[in-house]
Amino acid sequence: MSSKGEKTRSDIIEAAQNLFYHQGYHFTSFSDIVDSAGILRGNIYHYFKTKDDILAAVIDQHLARFTAMLEGWEKELREPRARLIRFTEMLIGRQDDLVHYGCPVGTLTGELGKTADTHNPAKPLFDLFLQWLARQFEALGYGREADTLALHLLGRSQGITVMTHVYRDPKLLKREVTLLQGWLTGLEPPRVKAAARPARARTRSGTERPA
Q1: Do residues 34 and 40 touch, judged by C-beta distance below 8 A?
Q2: 83 and 50 share one domain
Q3: What is the number of domains present in the chain?
Q4: Would the CA dihedral through 72, 76, 80, 81 be positive or negative?
Q5: Which of 29, 112, 139, 167 qualifies as a FRET site for 40, CA 20 to 30 Å off?
Q6: Is the Cβ–Cβ distance between 33 and 48 less than 8 Å?
Q7: Residues 180 and 81 in one domain
Q8: pLDDT tens for the 211 residues of the chain, in order
Q9: In whole angstroms, what is the distance from residue 134 CA to residue 148 CA?
Q10: Are residues 92 and 177 in the same domain?
Q11: Same-domain status, 83 and 152
Q12: Residues 93 and 5: beta-carbon distance below 8 Å
């Protein structure tokens, strides 16, 4: 594909991504995407045959961008706790969008989940964050609990984005982020239980010997 063709394809994906977020996947037509991308309607079929094909490309772009973002945090921040706190700061950085449109990942996944029979095509976006969060908690020493803590953090983050959007109140978001950061800051590494010592029996003389 030529550089011009790659740019056109990228413009289509970018236009679709914005439309899916702002007005929903099911309420976005091919004509909407064509108009937003600024191309002729016939040209779009050279790159995508169906709207589902465009959706797959949008999800792939989300995955690529979020993966690059998380990898960037790992390079910038050496301490896993700092990375977890950065995750919560991401919510504040998008507070205006969250107030008006909700979470781009959560809204897309929720919308597609209403019509998907078994497989939600946007589920890999949640998988990406869950697995990354679990690795950070595991690095803090929470081996068995890492998955549970990751789900807890992601669940609270998604929940507050919904409430912020419903009530159009950024103060709700800021308050919950502050609470989450306090929880993460005070989270102590799990204590390693001391190995049980072998029982010791007493001899007739009163001295101890291993059982």
Answers
A1: yes
A2: no
A3: 2
A4: negative
A5: 112
A6: no
A7: yes
A8: 678 889 999 999 999 999 999 999 999 999 999 999 999 988 999 999 999 999 999 999 999 999 999 999 999 999 999 999 999 999 999 999 999 999 999 999 999 998 866 789 999 999 999 999 999 999 999 999 999 999 999 999 999 999 999 999 999 999 999 999 999 999 987 875 444 455 555 555 555 555 4
A9: 8
A10: yes
A11: yes
A12: no
- Find out whether 112 and 123 touch, Cβ atoms under 8 Å: no
94 and 176 assigned to the same domain:
yes
Question: In terms of residue numbers, what domain contains 83?
Answer: 77-186
6 and 102 part of one domain: no
- Pairwise CA distance, residues 99 & 161, whole Å: 8
pTM for this prediction? 0.87
Tokens of 211: 């059982």
- One-letter amino acid at 91 equals L
Radius of gyration of the chain (CA): 24
Q: Are residues 181 and 82 in the same domain?
A: yes
- Here the tokens at position 206 are 């009163």
Do 17 and 109 belong together in one domain? Answer: no
